[in-house]
Amino acid sequence: MILRRLRDSRADAEAVRTVATAAFGDGTFGGAPEDRRAVRFVRRVRHLVTTDPDGCWLAEDDAGRPLGAALACLRENVWGLSLFAVAPRAQGKGAGTELMRRVAEYGRGVLRGMICARPHPAATRLYRAAGFTLHPTMRLTGAVDAGRLAAPDGPAIEGGAAHRDLMDSVDRRVRGAAHGPDHTELLRHCRVVVADDLAGSGYCYLDDSGRVELLAATSRRIAVRLLGSALLSLPPGVAASVRHLTAEQEWAVDVGLSAGLDLSADGFLCLRGMRPPAPYLPSVQYL
């Protein structure tokens, strides 16, 4: 087995997508290369290779075929694991352990860490061994019943690049570190709703598939307003998805249930050196 840093190339990004598709066995990462989800995934990989070259690793066999991949990002004083995937044929053979060791080295000396994890036994064992506390999470999914959802209690406007400083400021207050360059990438693929008044400040990213990608707010009141506004903005027929809700995010559970969404178990929010940020809904990719 060979471990090497990922290169900023389409070929390497597609190798990561091949591994992730094999590891997770679903359509999360798209089908054909021109599929919208595939294009977004490739951009995500290349974005992280650009911003965090020492945190992005690929495992290959002796023939150069991809076996596993791990992508980590470092934003100020928070380390995050954006992707960790090992192909089924390489699982249980040490590839995952070596990949985790390499990306952990990238965050050496950084106390705070975050991972949004699927409920995979081998992966969760590695995360726990690395010192992470595993917080069980829930997800909300389904069609929004707008008639059941209370109207927002104040203004929430369409945001954009002009709100980068505000969003970074909210990030620092809520999770202890700004997302910085990740906002640029998120704005390529998502709408962002922003609120800023005497009740507090916050933002919520929503993609065109109905998924809440990331939400951060300085008060529960603003968080409820942002999530409600985002759900109400979905076109008819588009199902909503709100993931990685810990018990600290009951405000989001209440909004989702009021909107007629279904609540189910999800995975784990793995944290080191920090409590679950709140009010906060993490991004799987950018945490």
UniProtKB/TrEMBL annotation:
Listed PROSITE patterns: GNAT (PS51186)
The entry's keywords: Transferase
Keyword presence, Transferase: yes
CDD domains: NAT_SF
GO molecular function, one term: acyltransferase activity, transferring groups other than amino-acyl groups
Matching InterPro entries: Acyl_CoA_acyltransferase (IPR016181), GNAT_dom (IPR000182)
Pfam families hit by this protein: Acetyltransf_1
Stretches assigned to the N-acetyltransferase domain: 1-151
Domain of life: Bacteria
Listed name of the protein: GNAT family N-acetyltransferase
Organism of provenance: Streptomyces marincola
